[in-house]
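Technical appendix A lists one of the benchmark inputs used to test multi-chain prediction within the project. The record comprises two sequence entries:
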Amino acid sequence: MGDIILKLQNLEAGYIIKQGDIKAVDNVNFELKRGEFLGIAGESGCGKSTLAYTIMGLLEDNGRIFNGEILYQDKDLTSMTENELKAIRWQNISMVFQSAMNALNPVMKIGNQLIDTILSHKKDFTKRDAINKSKEMLKLVDITEDRMNAFPHQLSGGMKQRVMIAMAMILEPDIIIMDEPTTALDVVVQRTIIDKISDLRKQFNFSVIFITHDLSLLVEISDKLIIMYSGQIIESGLANKVYNNPLHPYTKGLMNSFPSLTGKLQDFGGIPGKPPNFLKLPGGCRFHTRCPMKQDICSKVAPPLQQINNDHTARCHFVKKGN
Amino acid sequence: MNKRLLELNNVTKHFPIHKLGKKRFVHAMDDVSLSIHQGEILSIVGESGSGKTTTAKVIAKLYNIDSGSITFQGNRIDGKLTRNEMLKYRKNVQMIFQDPFGSLNPTHTIRSILERPFIIHNLAPKEEIENRIKEILVQVGMDPPEQFMRKFPHELSGGQRQRVNIARVMSVNPVLLLADEPTSMLDVSIRMIIMNMIKEFRDKHNISYLYITHDLAGARYIADRIAVMYAGMIMEIGKADNVIQQAYHPYTQLLKSAAPQPERDFRKQKLTTKGDIPSLIEPPSGCRFHPRCPAAVPECKNYIPPMTEVDKDHFVRCILK
């Protein structure tokens, strides 16, 4: 695995609404290496999609970056103008959106959508080059050339998602952010897409930030894992370490939320309650309202994200070094 | 456990589509036979478009069947029922829908949503209804109930809405519940809680379930028996653990290898199939799975294999067995 290509430092971002500011991403730090597969997991409303859109510079009108830096190859994306960002977006960092069904233009042939992507970024490409490149990309994701003339509604859900992946890869970016790319798909289709992503990653050595709430899938495919809760990172580490030795009670709860296919059958619990409202965050640890191990200190003092083992961090008062 | 509650025999359901004067059919269910025993959870597993939901809706009598028979507690219910018979059947058989956001009337409070079954089925005198609603809300974990009864569906989270749905079906004391992917639209943390609640009602009230899902691991966790459906047909049916551990049908094996498994390093294993679910308007000749099947032989194209018993109570529709 190579050098660090993306580094987030104390990133705080969110939305300004009538009732106040919502910090959906709160003091997030992480590093992404070239060729790495980083998984980000959390419940809906934990800020994982906001994080993705913040990195892309695609927050909605009421979205703001309150603080912190997003360093892409040592250049800070948060201080760039829209035009500077446009040069990086898609060429260097691209994205696969959650619902491919809505992300593709329904009245435009998919071939033209791919060609458009190339022509608007690469000034030295002729139309002919762009057509050839588009065909080549479609072939990479197992879609035959003749589908260049198909409209999105003529493709199945899995094919549309593969077109989205082709589109995200077409400018050969360093980083592809995938926001729940397989959530709306069936298990078998999901598996073929995941296999495809892993093949292409080997071939082109790009990094992936993969966002999902399906932890069972994420553990299987990620190198590194980040668990988010209420806007904060509450645990991070190598995927197999986090799976085999989860430290934070929330991670333990999540790991106890999906039954196994082959292992012994046991009772699984889930996590009672729901995540806190961003406008009325509980004092102290944000998870204490749902935590089975809660003590007095939890509602008073917010725990910092501590390094427990090499590369394994957790945000909990009761997780100590050497655990 | 041994009493048969519901039985489907060779049930077929085709939906007509009219296009350019030519009448064609969507083959949503073909030759589906299954039974559910008292107190049993039968899970139907399959990809979208495999006919799972149609099966539930046919049992709920939301669709009429084209051929075959459905027997409930020894009586045929597939024909036309009188209003009273229908009301009685609906009191016994209820459905939990997939989408907790679409299955509650947004303009009604939780109280008025939960009042309806009591009024329709005339289950309790007016002054008792409120207490009964409170009891049921507590049963589904919505405590204190007074606080929730005033609310509208949009004020609740997805998990809470699904709890209201379960409270609504439980209020009529049903014998059979048809649960159509009740957890697929919920967050992971709440899924197990809803699944455990379903199991608890089975254990406490001896309710039977048809539990539809596309999650094989979830089916193994919750169900006594599993039926695997593909393109409108049942491909394999048997005891949950047998179907998963000794999957005979290539399609069951495919589903198994596609399911996420954190214990496994996925980079080592590849799927051996290609293509999507076939068109149900012109289903493939012979075995419906043969175009995608890694083990297909030429005969697969020519005839539809019958269900064959491979082990005790374990049936497979494949000529290789």
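The mean pLDDT of chain B is 90. The first helix of chain B runs from residue 52 to 59. Comparable benchmark entries are summarised in Table A2.
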